[in-house]
Design brief:
By secondary structure, the chain is an alpha/beta fold. It has ten helices and nine strands. The chain has a single domain, classed as 3-Layer(aba) Sandwich (Rossmann fold), CATH 3.40.50.150. 35% of the residues lie in helices and 17% in strands.
């Protein structure tokens, strides 16, 4: 597990120099920090709270984006899928693309045989290095997800798990397809996990996101079968509506469960998991 650099202890809060899509990393970070301060946390990410307290930023303006529980629940479910994959593939490579300041590697604590790569824009990784250090089995990669060259730095001779948490909606449909094709072309087998938002969600949040951070979501998915057709090597094994997650507190499950009867709301955000290569039942040994 990568340690936080000791020299950060006791430092005064510093300003971040991020804007546009890079600045959006602060949305899930703040949601996780608030969750960790709650009486009954869903994720319990203390590291997120430490980072928020160390960053000089007007986090209060992020309250306008609604209930942060959604991003926390999304992270919790993805964490569970990561643990499940690593329990069966203790020598895997994990690619956490568009990682932002996510502390997933610390929450998971991957086995020693795992190679974990956290990837994001150079400006984001520069900020991330204030809190994390490269180490054995862990490396931060400075690159855009749309640049095909960075994949050459990842060993292609082991199963791979690709995680894109709150990332794909900032790409175009063509960029998503190209990325998925590169992954299945580089690795023999593995899984890809990411979330998608429908048109209702994208349109509803467009003005607030543009006004606050100068960016917007670009890809909407109203029918997941459109995603299924992006790469013939991918097989969908999970499709989950986030608002029906068991990780929400009871009062939210009741409210969201009722609201989810309206398709436009119920399918606001979905988590998708795909596999490629030989299925587990087809592999020998």
């Amino acid at each position: 597990m990568p340690p936080a650099p000791e020299e950060n202890a006791g430092r005064r809060p510093h300003r971040v120099h991020l804007e546009g899509v890079e600045e959006t990393l602060l949305l899930p970070l703040y949601a996780k920090a608030l969750d960790s301060r709650s009486k009954h946390p869903i994720l319990g990410d203390v590291k997120a709270d430490e980072m928020v307290r160390a960053i000089d930023y007007d986090f209060e303006k992020l309250h306008r984006f609604g209930n942060g529980n959604v991003m926390v629940v999304r992270a919790r479910q993805i964490d569970e899928w990561v643990r499940e994959f690593l329990s069966s593939n203790p020598n895997a490579a994990v690619l956490n693309v568009g990682c932002g300041l996510d502390a997933r590697v610390s929450r998971i604590g991957p086995p020693p045989g795992v190679s974990w790569f956290d990837l994001d824009f150079p400006e984001v990784i520069a900020e991330r290095r204030n809190f994390f250090s490269d180490g054995q089995g862990y490396r931060m990669v400075e690159s855009s997800i749309t640049d095909p060259k960075w994949l050459e730095r990842v060993p292609g001779d082991r199963p791979v798990l690709v995680v894109a948490d709150g990332v794909m909606e900032y790409l175009t449909e063509d960029e998503v397809k190209a990325f998925l094709n590169r992954v299945t072309g580089r690795f023999a087998r593995g899984q890809v996990v990411f979330d998608v938002m429908n048109s209702y969600a994208v349109e509803r949040g467009r003005s607030s996101l543009k006004q606050t951070m100068g960016t917007a979501h670009r890809w909407a998915v109203d029918d997941v079968r459109a995603v299924d057709g992006m790469d013939p090597l991918l097989r969908r094994v999970s499709s989950m509506t986030v608002f029906r997650s068991r990780y929400f507190p009871l009062r939210f499950r009741v409210v969201f469960g009722a609201a989810s009867l309206v398709p436009s709301f119920g399918n606001t955000m979905r988590l998708l998991r795909y596999e490629f290569g030989p299925a587990a039942s087809d592999r020998v040994g």
